[in-house]
Amino acid sequence: MLSPTLTIRDQWEDRLQEYFSGDRSYDKISFDLSNPSDITFSTYQGLHAFYKKQEDASMFLEHFRKMGIKTIVLDEAHHLKNEWWKCLFALKHDQELTVVALTATPPFDSTSAEIKRYFDLCGEVDDEIAIPSLVKEGDLCPHQDFVHFSLPDQLTIDYIVAFRLKVAQLLEDLKTDKLFVDFILNHRFYSNTEKSLEEIYRQPSFFSSILIFLNAIDTKIPKEKLKVLGFENKDKIKYPSFNNDWASVLLNHILFVDRDHLATEDEIVVAFEKKLKRIGVLKTNRVDLIGNEGFYKTLSNSPSKLNSIVSITKAADQELEQDLRAVVLTDYIRKEYLELADERINEIDKLGVVPIFHRLRNSIQDRSKIAVLTGSLVIISTQVYDVICQDQGPQHLITLPLEADDSFVCIKARNSISASLVEIVTDLFQKGTISIIIGTKSLLGEGWDAPAINTLILASAVGSFVTSNQMRGRAIRTFKQMPDKTAVIWHLACLDPSDENGGSDLETLSRRFTAFMGISNNDPLRIENGIERLDLGRPQTQTEVEYRNKKSAELAINRTEIARKWKEAITGGTSLSKELKSFYRGGIDYPKQKRLYFNDVVLAIFIELILGLGFFVPEIILKNLNILLQGGWLKFLYILISAFVLGYGVKTYNAVRLYINHGRLHKDIYKIGETVLDTLYDLGYINSDLSKVEIKLRLNQTGTVSCIPMGMSNYESTLFVNALEEVIAPVGNPRYLLLRKGWLRNMIGVQRYLVVPDIFGDKKENTQKFLLHWKNNVGNAKILYTHNLEGRKLLLKARMFHMGNSEETKTKKSVIWH
After folding, report:
1. Does residue 8 contact residue 75 with C-beta atoms inside 8 Å?
2. Calpha distance 632→627 (Å, rounded)
3. CB atoms near residue 360 (< 10 Å)
4. Comparing C-alpha atoms, which of 133, 135, 134 is closest to residue 563?
5. Which of 172, 368, 718, 811 could pair covalently with 383 via S-S, beta carbons 3.0-4.6 A apart?
6. Are 416 and 393 in contact (CB under 8 A)?
7. What's the Cα-to-Cα distance from 148 to each of 33, 345, 466, rounded to whole Å?
């Protein structure tokens, strides 16, 4: 039995004894790899160290062969993306071992090489136990996630706003800087395009950024430049705006990628570098016009989150009283604040264990039940210290009074103590002697076993799939002594009021939520992953933040309702399904935008035509009655048609163009899904009975289209969703593109490029099967190969069409209980 830590290793022995022997009477166990028994417990580090001690790999393998090891259990198997896999691979390939890999968090957010290594060792997923099933069986308790928002202090807001204003001014200055404009116009990519084609096709984004910049300053782009991107004279080109992203592409390439070619203009480039340094956007080997990395560090550790923690903990304390078992997990200890006087606590401007401790001990009514538990710092109240002394004896503890508050002491364990401090404090927490623990994610985030937790506050900046799910997993376990336990998990987000999407801290939190499954706060009631299920909106002002936090707090204290919703939602499904969501991103509310797409076409062509006939035509007749009386019918028709085209033609054309380009995407997704399904089945990737397979489509009021494959295995639905997402997602660097064809599209210059999924693009015959099913389900199209000179042009053109499309959708994969 291999585990990542000694704590988890010991838990394995405890659990096996508890479940199978009861009285810990089974003694055929070992913790020593050099002398294994029927069951041997060790860590991955221990195995690796044992491997390194051997003279060569053959001795390592011979040892286990001689000892008769037949089965290896890999607990928390996501850790195997580290170098520990080497000796395990050696064992697996040398001997016919049964390998059992266990994890609640496969490392899906790791690099592709690490994921491949993980599955090479562990194999494909044999069985996946769904969270709803575990809640249904009573192995996990009902639970819900909540987000508590805060705004940064005024100094931080001023800093962020000032940065954005400086960047905005920089972009405006670029447009009027004659030296810079001349530099761009004289760059070889633009001034000598034909001779630079090979370079341009290696750096297509840079060439695009040049054209986008020149278009932004009203420079007429010669048609031959656009032909490099695959555009023909008849194509209608909509340039993207020259925003921060495109400016970053342009400036990064000039300053870092293309620097060696700019020796003659080095003086200009150096002068420009100094300007970028002055406004703080020139970093090491890159230009950062977004500032998210710096903003994230500032926002994720904002002291405003201290107020959130106090507010959440006070509410939970009032709600649960003696039943409260709250844990706050954060990243740093911040020992420098340990002896800070009470009158200076509000001056603390950093998030950490000690700052949280100070704020809570001055806010919670019964402060004696607060404790700090980290690897290097343990703080308990004097009352709790007396309890430990009664059990363990004071001789086993080293104590240091807390000068800032004499009702607390810092403690350390002497070598002779019978149990570790972590176990002692955890046991007191389980019993309720301690009800609030503040600790670090490094010590308590994984493997810490305290199922009494019913309130968890995640004050950590970690956004990775594995770590965040491990931390959350501390709270959602059942606890025998609390049969009706319902857990509440609080996440903290400090908003960037200058960012309409909430800023980098909320973005990281949203990414974290892809690993969490739970009940939705909106209708219909569902169990799914993703932050959208919480129906949070995007509060920006202090009033909006307070309102949203109040609504979340009201939901959080109603734990009975949370449990009821879980019970109801579980009965509404039997298994997990993959789902692809396509989000509407237009600036107008989706129902209004939908009316724009559809009704503008219908009204412009029919209703407005009728109105024109009813009001417009009589007016024209009256004004031109003399022409009609004199028999000038042709002249009258010319006047009528001209007036109609001038009055309604442009609107009709734009509405038709919008509708063809965007308005039917949500309807097309079903047909595209059918195409993907048929191709997967045709190529042997899907073995499920097609008569039992169904593609469900749902369109909600916000414009989000959800496509859900039913009747497939988990593996098959994953293939389907991944392939469908590739088709409709923004164009990246595919091997093949698909161009939708049609006489109306060609006539008005509308072209839509979609991606042929990689799973079909490995062989040309497979792409032809995809095209065949496309024509049967969707309509006329053709396949375009992108890995040649002409194909690179088409790929650039496809990207330009996408980038100029402000109403383009984005996609997201979800997991739901059906």
Report:
1. yes
2. 5
3. 22
4. 135
5. 368
6. no
7. 47, 22, 22
Half-sphere exposure of residue 224, counting CA atoms within 13 Å on the CB side? Answer: 8
- Which pLDDT value is given to residue 81? 60
The owner of tokens 């506050």 is: 457
8 A C-beta contact, residue 77 and residue 122: yes
pLDDT in tens, 599-646: 444 444 444 444 444 444 555 555 555 555 555 566 556 555 665 555
How far apart, in whole angstroms, are the C-alpha atoms of residue 721 and residue 728?
Answer: 11
Distance from C-alpha of 180 to C-alpha of 479, rounded to nearest angstrom: 67
The single-letter code of the amino acid at 719 is: L
DSSP assignment of 508-550, as one string? HHHHHGGG-EEE-SSSSP-EEESGGGG------SHHHHHHHHH
The full DSSP string for 96-150 is --EEEE--SS--TTS-HHHHHHHHHHH-S------HHHHHHHTSB--EEEEEEEE
Which pLDDT tens digit goes with each residue over 567-600?
999 998 887 777 777 665 444 343 343 433 344 4
Pairing of strands 326-330, 455-459: parallel
Residue percentage of the chain with pLDDT more than 90: 31
- CA pseudo-torsion sign 243, 249, 255, 259: negative
* Residues forming beta bridges with residue 811, ordered by sequence position: 582
Q: Count CA within 13 A, CB hemisphere, residue 350.
A: 11
The whole-angstrom separation of Cα 15 and Cα 21 is: 10
SS3 806: coil
Is the pLDDT reported for residue 75 higher than 70? yes
HSE-CB at 804 with a 13 A cutoff on CA atoms is 22
* % of residues, the chain, pLDDT over 70: 82
Tokens of 805: 């499309």
- Lookup result for tokens 């740093």: 332
Pinpoint the alpha helices (H) of 75-126. 85-94, 112-122
In the block, tokens 């293939």 appear at: 719
Within 680-807, strands assigned E span 694-699, 705-710, 736-740, 753-755, 781-785
* Distance from C-alpha of 200 to C-alpha of 209, rounded to nearest angstrom: 11
CA 468 to chain centre: 12
Asked if 703 and 795 count as a contact pair (C-beta separation under 8 A), the reply is no
Dihedral sign, CA of 486, 491, 497, 501? negative
Could you give the maximum distance between any two Cα atoms of the chain, in Å? Answer: 120
Question: Any idea which of 136-140, 702-706, 729-733 has the lowest mean pLDDT?
Answer: 702-706
Q: Is the pLDDT of residue 325 over 90?
A: yes
Q: Which residue has the tokens 């009204």?
A: 603
